[in-house]
């Protein structure tokens, strides 16, 4: 019995310290808190009304539909042309431009040829 009382006397201060200790103050997070979820009295906005497509998204959808079965570089060139609002004609690839400009620039030499190719390829 003496051992039980002695153990209780020794253990009680340890348990009391944990129960009486105050928690450390919480620090605020570096990122802002998320807004609270709407309560039962709040009016909910339908997802379709909140997520109306922007003009750019609509343009992307239209150009994507027009692109059809095009793949790879042809599709990229078409989408770039279509989205830049310059028209819906697909642009030539760099290799096609080089070939066309080279054919048109025959007969020119040296700096004249370089200047012509630079201007032709920048179109």
From TrEMBL:
Keyword Signal: yes
Region (Disordered): 22-109
Pfam families, per database record: PsiF_repeat
Signal sequence, start to end: 1-21
Keyword Signal in annotation: yes
Biased composition (Low complexity): 22-58
Superkingdom field: Bacteria
Keyword field: Signal
Name by which UniProt lists this protein: Phosphate starvation-inducible protein PsiF
């Amino acid at each position: 019995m003496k051992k039980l009382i002695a153990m209780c006397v020794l253990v009680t201060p340890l348990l009391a310290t944990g129960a009486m200790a105050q928690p450390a103050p919480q620090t605020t997070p570096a990122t802002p808190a998320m807004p609270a979820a709407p309560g039962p009295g709040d009016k909910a906005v339908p997802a379709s009304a909140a997520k109306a497509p922007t003009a750019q998204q609509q343009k992307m959808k239209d150009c994507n539909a027009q692109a059809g079965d095009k793949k790879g570089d042809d599709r990229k060139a078409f989408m770039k042309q279509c989205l830049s609002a310059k028209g819906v004609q697909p642009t030539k690839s760099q290799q096609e431009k080089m070939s066309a400009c080279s054919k048109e620039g025959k007969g020119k030499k040296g700096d004249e040829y370089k200047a012509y190719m630079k201007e032709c390829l920048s179109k």
